[in-house]
Each structure stands twice: as C-alpha cells, then as structure tokens.
Amino acid sequence: MTRTTMSRRILGVICVVGIFLIIAIGRLVEIQVVQAATLNEEAAGKMSQTHVLFGTRGSVTDRNGTVLAEAQMRYNVTASPSQSLNEFSRTVDGKRVSVSTAQAATEIAQLVGKTPQAVIDILNAALTEDPHSEYAVIAKSVDLTAFRALDALGIPWLYFEQAPSRVYPNGAVAGNLVGFVGEDGQALAGLELSNEECLAGVNGEQTSDRSARESITIPGSQVVTKPAKTGGKLTLTIDADVQWYVQQVLAKQVEDQHGSWGMAVVEEVKTGKLVAVADYPSIDPNNVNGTSENYRGSLAFSAPYEPGSTMKPLTASMLLDQGKVTPETHVYSPYEITHDNGANFHDSGYHASNLTLTGVLVESSNVGISQVGDLISADKRYDFMTKFGFGSTSEVDFLGESTGILRTPDEWDNQTFYTMMFGQGFTATAIQMASAYQALGNGGVRLPVQLVESCTADDGSVSKPSLPGPVRVVSESAARTSVDMMENVATKGWLRDKLAIGGYRVAAKTGTAQQADGNGGYSDSYIVSLEGLVPADNPQYVVLVTIADTDMNTTGAVAPVFHDIAAHVLKQYRVQPSTGSAPDFPLNY
Amino acid sequence: MSNALRQVQVSPLRRSLTRVSQSVSSRVVGKKRPKVFYATVSVAGTVGIIVTQIILSVWVSSNAFEIDELQTASKEVTRSSEQVQQHVSELSSPQNLAQTAEALGMVSSSTPAYLRLSDAQVLGQPSVASSSAGLVAGSYAGLVPNSELAKWRNPAPLTGNVSATSVATTTAADASVPLSPSAGATIPVPQTR
Predict the structure, then answer these.
(1) Is A571's CB within 8 Å of B109's CB?
(2) Is residue A14 part of a domain?
(3) Would residue A17 count as lying in a domain?
(4) A54 vs B151: which has the higher pLDDT
(5) For residue A178, is it within any domain?
(6) Would residue A115 count as lying in a domain?
(7) B18 pLDDT band (50/70/90 cuts)?
(8) Of A110, A171, A286, the CB nearest to B144
C-alpha cells in the first residue's frame, strides 16, 4: 500500500462522512427552519385544543329590572350514526343491561319531543348518504333540563354542542317591542335588532393542552388568545306588570268584540316615557312561528291610521292658543254642512245644533269643529300639527316605525282642508297620538317619546339615548282649557258611566274613524279609539286604546278597556285621588 | 467535612514554609479528597433534583385530575342553579302570577282609596272588588302567551338521577305548604285588642 492509496482512502472516508454530514445538516435545516411552522402547528393540533369563550349577549329589562330577554345556554343534540348501529350496555340497579338502538332512540325521542321513528329516520338518512357518517343533528337548542336528562342516559354515540340562545321569561309581555333573535344568535326584530350595539357580545377563544387519554386539561396550559366581550344590559321605560295588564285587557276585549286588531299605549305625561305599548295580536318571542308575520312587530309604531275625532281636542287647543275661541264660544252645528269651497260632510248622529265649543267636543260634531277650525290658516294648522309630532317618526325611532302621512297644505284638497280638523285625511300612529295628548297634559309642552331608558355596559358605564329638547306646541292655558273640555266629554258624554273612575277625574275623547277600503273610498267598519289623560286635575298618564272592526262598531267597545287601564295605572303608581270637581262648561247656547 | 476543614487550616502554613517544593505534594493531597466530595455532592444533587422533579410533576398531574373533577362538579352545580333560576323567573312571570292568584280565588281590586293619617280623611272612593273581575279565566288565559311557562306546566317526562331529585324536592315543598285555604282547614283569625 503506497502513501497515495492510503491518503486516497482517508480522503474517500472523509468524503462519505462529509456527504452524510451535509445530508444530516440539510435535513436538520429543513425540519428546524423550513417546516418548523407547519410541524409546530401539527404538534399543537394534536396536543392542544381551542375552544370558544362565549361572549354573552346582554339582557333586556323593564324599568324595575324584570328580565324581558336574556341569554341562556342551550344544547344541540348530535349523534354518530355509524356508532349508533352498535348496542351498548349500561348498569341498571347493579346489573349490566344491553341497550338496543331502538330503545335508545325511544329514550332520546321522549326528551327532545320527537317520535322514536323520527329519531331513527334521522340516523338512517345520515347512514344512507354516508355509511360511515359520524355526525347527524337529532335536535337543536334543547334546554338545560332536557340536556341533563339526555346526558344522564349515558348513550355513547350521543354528543352535545353548546348553542347560546335567547329566552324571554315573560313570553309575549312586551314581545312586540323586544323583538327576537334567530337560531344563529343574530337579532332579527324589535329592540333586539335596533340596539344590537348595546346588547351584542363578542365570542373569544381559549387554547389549552390536554392529556391524550382522559382529555384532562394540563394545568397552566390555558391561554386566552382572545378575550370574550359580554354585551350590555338594555333597560326600557316599560313596566312589565302594567304592560302585561294592558295586553291582557286589550286582548280580552278584541276577542270579545271579534275585532281584527287592537293597540293600547300608556305614556307618562311629565317625562314622555312609555309605560306600556300593547298590540294584539302580538308575538311570543319564544315561539316566533306561532304568530303571523304581520303581527311580529308593534302596530302602535308601524301601523298609522286615520285617528278620527281624537284629533278634535288638538284642533281646539290650536284655536285656543291663537285666541280664536273659548270653551263657551257659540258654534252653529247642523247635522250636515256644505262649505263655500264645496266640501261636504255630516255628523255621525243627530244632536241639537246650538252647541258651544265644549258641546262640539261632547257631541263629537264634525260640522261644529269645521265651523271654527278655519279661523286659523292651513299653514298655521300644519305648523301646529308638526309640532305635535305628526308627519315624522317619534324620538324612539322604533324599527319600522312609520311617519304617518301628513301632506303639506298646498296638497290639501277642499275636502281635506276641513276633514283634517276631525282626524280624517291624514294618518298617525298610536304613538304619535299619545305624544300629542302628552303635550296637552303637560301644559302644552311636548316631550320626546322615550322607550329605552339606558344601556349599561359590562364595565358598568351607563349611556342614555340622546333625545332632543322639549317643544312648546300651544300655550299653557290653551292646553289646560283643552283638558278641561275633554273632562266635560268624560262627565257629560254618552260614555260617562263607563269612563267614571271612583275618586279620580278623567279627561277623554272618543274617535270613530272610517277605514280606507283600499279602493279610494271608505269601508263601513270603523277603527274605534278612546284617548285621555288621568287624573284630569293634574295629568300624569296618557292612555290610548284603539280597536279595529268591533261588533259594536262604536267607541263603546273601547271605553271599558280605557277605564280598566286608567284605573289600573292610577292604582299601580299610587296616584293621589283627585281633589275639586270637574269644570262645568255649558254645552248649548 | 472534618477533613476539608483541616485541609483549609493546614495549607496556608505549608505554603508559607516551603512554597516551591511542597506545593506539588500539597496539591496532590488536597485534590484527591475534594474530588470524592464534589462528585458525591453533585451526584446527590442531580439525583435530588430529578426525584423532586418527579415528585412535583406527579403531584401536579394528580392535581390536574382533581381540578378536572372539581371543575366538572362545579359545572354541574352551576347548571342546577341555572335550572332553578330559569324555573323561578318563568314562574314569576305575570301570566303565571295572575293565573295562580285567580285560581286561589283572588280578584283584582277596583278603585283604591287612601286614608290620610293627619286628618283621618278618606281619599278616593273605596268600593268592593267584584268577583266577576276575573281577567285570565278560561279561554282568556292564553291571550298573552308564554311558551316558556307552558313548558314548566307540562314538563317533558324526565329520567336520570338529576331529574329524580328535582321531582322529589318539588313534591316535598308542595306537601309542606298548603297552597289554597281549602287544602288546610280554616284561615286563623288574627287576635286584635
């Protein structure tokens, strides 16, 4: 062996070792640098688990803190159809008993409110599509009671998913206002939707490492990668107890009178806050499909109607404000009239024609109010009506709220020029009407209508809705005198016995409005309403009741409802009984 | 330990006497004993650390099981509490209260009256509530529906341990508190003097 061959061999060995070394280094670089991210991820995926931290949606409460809507954890029941084919065994009274798929299905069916066949059908359908199917939904959003009972069955192929959902513990109480949330947690209607910003929670994420076999969380491995945000609490001005009462009394009368729908509003005179807004039919947000689509919101906000004679005290207050009339002004009021401009209409019933202005309100004479209504210009009347809140949505800005139709004076035809004085020829929502009466009760100053009291964020900070300032519509004395005249309606009108509330003075006005028949004319069924202020000597509450298509077809159908609601509100809020007696204005001259 | 001490005391003396010649032998003597000592200490230390670590990790992981168990128990308790809360909030809904009150023969009062203490004046017009004032009787009961409440009125058939307990509790409560006057003899007459 020469020196050269020797050194060649050494060289060869070094080369081979070198090549292996390079390959090894290359592999090292590939694993540690090139594939590092992917491999780390894969490892983390095998070891750690990510789960959602649910950001709870805030609750909706009434003015006293009664919960109207709240988040509740529900559970989706799922199954592994392929595993369900196997029998399993469980211990009953210390003995092992094997349970067949059919028996398990029967047990599940009982708890999720399905037939056993329906459960088996779900499993079969999944297996037909894919014989190795590992996932089928048996039932969605079952409650805690059902979930615990299902869990206790110990069926190995039954799994559960958390499904945050929404519950309305008081059902249809204020359901028309609160609205509802869809199955996916998305707000779909009412205040739930319009106050999404306040209520919405944001889901977070947490990762943790788990042991392979028992799936036990390894201590110290929990990391919140994204914190969950809890939604704020929305407080309403509604009083759930009063709201329920108003809804119940209204619903009872609509049913008894075979009316097609009804609404009732209670508003605080001194604050503009809504205490109750009832609609019938109305929705139970726990069971959205139980109510026709037309009645899933609030008619009081969204369904404008021609108010009819409840408009007359407002027209009278405008005339009083302008100093054109007094309660005793003589108004010649025959049954029928044709004005100079050709407008022709008549009253709903015969009465003496020598009426005072108070008499015009008590007899609800269209002719009478039209005789004095034209003492102020159309522009001036339009201006007053705008200030009363007609023609624009209320400050609540409820979802789908209507402005009603209030045309500008240049669009009024000869007939409308007069009919608007007694509430035909324009439309208003129940909320707009309540708000206009609130101004009369509050010395002529209209306050913004309020439905949302505040939003309390999770950190405790409270934000209130921004509202415009109060608006003076008519003078204090004009407003007071209008209420006095309305009190004469309650004490001398044909409904006086039905409207009397022992110990309290009541101011009210009836309204019987024709409904458009959809062909440019009027149908012969009426929307009847009664609206008033209690107690009349120091008005605290506006009460409005409206029902369509009653058997009686007169305001006699709504008077008992008005009475019951007004009496209940006075009782509920401990309003001091009235002092003094009702002003006594002559009705005839 | 005593060897080490002696060594430390001796070596400076030796160094001062014969710095060059003695230094080699002294290092040999001085180095041999510490080697055994340090080896023992480090091995014992290492073993100690490993053992502690093993004990600690066993302790931690056994706690993990305990934590998991407690968390499950806590979850169960929270669920029970939630379940009861839900029941309470639905039972306290106005629909249920009104129906229960009417079932017990109560009626809503008509107009209230107040007694002013300063001058014994009666304010308002007191009147007797009429027995026909029933608001939720018969077919009027479901006018303001609450399907959550209906669920509690007609509960789904329950199985399992949890439900068995809750049923038992309800029955016990029902038995101890008579709900209507007819269920337990007469209403006791208050003693006035």
Answers:
(1) yes
(2) no
(3) no
(4) A54
(5) no
(6) yes
(7) very low
(8) A171
